[in-house]
């Protein structure tokens, strides 16, 4: 068995990962290239490295999560870090303790890094300005989900070998999606050709002015894309009047085999999860030969190992 690609000896330009908008294209490639080494390690019989031995990481989740929380925990354990898991339900947040008090108390337990998901946009930035620990954004409101965008780019590059020039369309509720925001910024930074598709009530007004292509017809998006990254439609959007009904959404924007068969070439199908099967994506497409949805999950562990490695190595000696 050959040795894995060596790990880089450089650091990203920011000591936190708060959003894709705060990092450079070089940072993005550093995270992706480092993740490739960890992806190789994940294929080995022994998948653990002692790189972050002695580093204390807390996973601070104020919102539900399956993929992000578990893959961060797995990544931390694979790198030998000590892991603390915090969920707001069952904590003193329920008694009214503030976010800042909660994290200051956790930091007093000598925590080096905080992985944080919160419903408030900007919560990780707020914390990073007030605590000493490294802060990693695991999704903040409708603002950003940088680790998801990085694993999405990794998965696209794994399939196409390049990112530059690739036409990647995000389909769904762009206005309320942190996945969409982080992906659009990341794709633009690396020279891909990002686009969006969805009902006009779900597309931010100024996107075209910012250089993004906007499709209001999904068949047009399918004809002009290499990749479709399909977003979850939240059921409350129908109740709030953003779309007339879930059935209408499925009729005009749902991705199904019949629509994809009209494309001139097969498209790569992605979804960050969780999927509403039969709403934004039909099961035969989600589970079909062009879907990389479970590859995204596997790559998520490697990307999060890369992020933890690049940001947290060295804290032992600090
Ligand atoms: N993609 C994503 O963020 O999934 P979870 O909400 O399950 O973490």
Number of individual domains: 2
**What characterizes the major β-sheet?**
5 strands, parallel
Count of individual beta strands: 9
Can you list the ligands bound to this structure? phosphoric acid mono(formamide)ester
* Model regions low in confidence, pLDDT < 50 over at least 5 residues: none
Strands side by side in the biggest sheet: 7-6-5-8-9
CATH topology name of the largest domain: Rossmann fold
CATH secondary-structure class of the largest domain: Alpha Beta
The rounded distance between the terminal residues' Cα atoms is: 35 Å
Q: What would you note in describing this structure?
A:
This protein has 318 residues and is α/β, with parallel strands linked by helices. The chain has two domains: 20-144 and 300-315, Rossmann fold; 146-296, 3-Layer(aba) Sandwich (Rossmann fold), CATH 3.40.50. 37% of the residues lie in helices and 14% in strands. The protein is built from twelve helices and nine strands. The strands form two sheets. A five-stranded parallel β-sheet has the order 7-6-5-8-9. Strands 2-1-3-4 form a four-stranded parallel β-sheet. Helix 1 packs across helix 5, helix 1 crosses helix 12 and helix 5 packs across helix 6. The longest helix has 20 residues, at 293-312. The radius of gyration is 20 Å and the shape is globular. It starts with 24 loop residues before the first helix and ends in a 6-residue tail after the last helix. The mean pLDDT is 94. The protein binds phosphoric acid mono(formamide)ester.
